[in-house]
């Protein structure tokens, strides 16, 4: 081959790859801009409308159409399942809908809108430099829209120049899936399907594969039959993203990823089976006949619209056929990936939920509630079972150390999760909640530390070989009753916002402070009357101070939890 031909081919291939790169970059910018502009409510739809399979399907389609990526939606759903926010069957309806929503990209790029590309890039660039966050998000969206279509135009223009080249025409003819003697060639059909699958697995974006196929179709290098098989392969290949996301997840999340794969494999199988059902004497399969009916015109000029309609038609058919059989498909997934007799472990701080800041913050609150419950249970155990009775047990101390280490780990995990979330471009009101949550985890961890202080006081009272007087025991029990009520209300407030709870908690905190002061005065009076020994008296007062510190930690948590709840971040 002459040198100038080699150089020419090299330039053309580089231009095509550059166009594909711009297409991918534009799609990424548009997706991220839409996610920021639409707000977290769009992401929350996936959780809150998942209870009904049909509504779940519509919500999955809506959110995916907005975020322009079924991968983002599906990975988020895997995160919901792994965190215990969705059941397997709830997730399946949303995943089915996500497949329909992702076809919006193909529909967009199939239209000729060359005249708005450069104005979109210019307007988007101007908006990106505006200080108002909402406009910046829309700027990213508009700029990404322009870049996406610019990349698409680059690919289409370059591919059209190759459509008259005999070498390229011969190459693409090896994948030609047009009917021969009234039937589609089986091996070419399989070959095109595998090519679409592998390309999508490699770039992990069915939308990018679809854009490339639309460009190939618009250039005349492939026909509708070949394009449809490449699209069907890409629908199977895109499920690799959910499979990768489920690797570190629990088995129910793995079942949800398996449902995504089975949905596309079964859907492709059903549609491909119809390719051998002809509708007329020319041997046109019924699927392609429907595409002709949906698209005005069947020339090369109209081929991009036919490809986009084929992509949408396939996913709608698959969803309509399989949605009624979600329970049966769920049971099949459970047989393929059984949970077994072990308990399913849900990951509350699910990394994939970082894509949905509101839900990530709510999950952090769930983890905080569990951490606070553990810290408070330690206080109850050591005060009621060790300190008040004057007992000391080294085994109990060892157990407390293990439990205290667990709360330390919880604090670290929540803090790391919130730190990762803080690195995202959060709305200011959400970003302001993160320091409050971090302070809450610090206070919950300190409550766990206070139990070790109380247990040390139990050791000292035990070594004195003396017990508290009945009056002192009664005072401690009254204080613990008030503190227990306060702790339960605080734990409840962390889990579910109620407007009046903070006021009640503050009143209890004030009451505990007054009780501590009163009991300290009573004890000093008993010391003057020599009704108890000085060494026990010192321990009594020190223990009151520790319990007041616990009360202060609880009210700190309650005040911040109330502020977070007022922002709608607590269920």
From TrEMBL:
From the Swiss-Prot or TrEMBL record, state where the protein is found: Cell membrane
- Is Transmembrane helix tagged as a keyword? yes
Give the matching InterPro entries.
Answer: Na/Pi_transpt, NaPi_cotrn-rel/YqeW-like, PhoU-like_sf, PhoU_dom
**TM segments?**
6-27, 48-67, 73-96, 116-135, 141-159, 180-204, 224-249, 261-279
Q: Does the keyword Transmembrane helix apply?
A: yes
Q: Which residues form a coiled coil?
A: none
Instruction: Give the UniProt entry's GO cellular component terms.
Output: plasma membrane
Keywords from the named record: Cell membrane, Membrane, Transmembrane, Transmembrane helix
According to the entry, every stretch annotated as the PhoU domain falls at 393-457, 477-560
Stored Gene3D superfamilies: Phosphate transport system protein phou homolog 2, domain 2
Q: Which domain of life is it from?
A: Bacteria
Q: Which GO terms describe its molecular function?
A: sodium:phosphate symporter activity
Q: How does it sit in the membrane?
A: Multi-pass membrane protein
Q: Which Pfam families match?
A: Na_Pi_cotrans, PhoU
Gene Ontology biological process terms, A to Z: sodium-dependent phosphate transport
Give the main localization category. Answer: membrane
Question: What NCBIfam families does this protein map onto?
Answer: Na_Pi_symport, NaPi_cotrn_rel
- What PANTHER family would the database entry show? SODIUM-DEPENDENT PHOSPHATE TRANSPORT PROTEIN 2B (PTHR10010:SF46), SOLUTE CARRIER FAMILY 34 SODIUM PHOSPHATE , MEMBER 2-RELATED (PTHR10010)
Q: What name has this protein been given in UniProt?
A: Na/Pi-cotransporter
Which species is the source of this protein?
Oligosphaera ethanolica
């Amino acid at each position: 081959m002459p040198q100038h031909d080699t150089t020419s081919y090299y330039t053309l291939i580089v231009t095509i790859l550059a166009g594909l790169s711009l297409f991918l970059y534009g799609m990424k910018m548009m997706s991220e801009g839409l996610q920021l502009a639409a707000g977290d409510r769009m992401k929350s739809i996936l959780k809150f409308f998942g209870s009904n399979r049909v509504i779940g399907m519509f919500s999955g389609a809506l959110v995916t159409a907005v975020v322009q990526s079924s991968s983002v939606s599906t990975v988020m759903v895997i995160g919901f399942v792994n965190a215990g926010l969705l059941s397997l069957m709830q997730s399946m309806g949303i995943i089915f809908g996500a497949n329909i929503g992702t076809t919006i990209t193909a529909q967009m790029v199939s239209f000729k809108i060359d005249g708005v590309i450069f104005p979109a890039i210019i307007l988007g660039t101007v908006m990106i430099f505006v200080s108002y966050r909402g406009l910046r998000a829309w700027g990213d969206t508009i700029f990404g829209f322009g870049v996406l279509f610019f990349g698409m135009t680059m690919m289409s223009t370059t591919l059209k120049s190759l459509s008259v080249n005999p070498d390229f025409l011969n190459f693409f003819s090896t994948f030609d899936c047009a009917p021969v003697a009234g039937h589609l060639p089986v091996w070419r059909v399989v070959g095109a399907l595998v090519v679409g699958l592998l390309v999508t697995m490699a770039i992990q974006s069915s939308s990018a594969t679809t854009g490339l196929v639309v460009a190939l179709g618009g250039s005349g290098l492939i026909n509708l039959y070949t394009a449809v098989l490449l699209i069907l392969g890409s629908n199977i290949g895109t499920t690799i993203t959910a499979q990768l996301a489920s690797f570190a997840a629990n088995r129910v999340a793995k079942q949800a990823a398996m449902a995504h794969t089975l949905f596309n494999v079964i859907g492709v199988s059903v549609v491909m089976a119809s390719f051998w059902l002809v509708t007329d004497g020319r041997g046109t399969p019924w699927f392609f006949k429907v595409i002709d009916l949906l698209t005005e015109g069947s020339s090369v000029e109209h081929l991009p619209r036919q490809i986009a309609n084929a992509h949408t038609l396939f996913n709608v058919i698959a969803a309509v056929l399989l949605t009624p059989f979600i329970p049966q498909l769920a049971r099949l997934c459970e047989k393929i990936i059984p949970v077994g007799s072990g308990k399913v472990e849900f990951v509350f701080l699910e990394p994939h939920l970082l894509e949905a800041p509101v839900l990530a913050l709510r999950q952090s609150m769930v983890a905080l509630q569990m951490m606070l419950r553990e810290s408070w249970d330690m206080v109850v155990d050591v005060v009621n079972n060790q300190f008040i009775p004057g007992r000391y047990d080294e085994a109990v101390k060892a157990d407390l150390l293990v439990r205290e280490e667990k709360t330390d780990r919880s604090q670290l995990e929540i803090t790391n999760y919130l730190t990762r979330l803080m690195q995202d471009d959060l709305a200011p009101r959400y970003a302001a909640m993160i320091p409050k949550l971090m302070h809450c985890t610090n206070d919950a961890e300190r409550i766990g530390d206070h139990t070790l202080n109380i247990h040390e006081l139990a050791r000292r009272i035990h070594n004195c070989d003396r017990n508290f007087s009945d009056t002192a025991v009664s005072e401690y029990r009254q204080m613990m009753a008030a503190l227990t009520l306060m702790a339960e209300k605080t734990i409840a407030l962390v889990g579910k916002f109620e407007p009046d709870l903070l006021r009640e908690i503050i009143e209890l905190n004030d009451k505990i402070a007054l009780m501590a002061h009163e009991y300290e005065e009573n004890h000093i009076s008993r010391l003057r009357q020599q009704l108890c020994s000085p060494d026990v008296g010192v321990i009594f007062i020190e223990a009151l101070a520790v319990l007041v510190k616990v009360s202060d930690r609880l009210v700190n948590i309650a005040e911040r939890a109330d502020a977070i709840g007022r922002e709608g971040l607590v269920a």
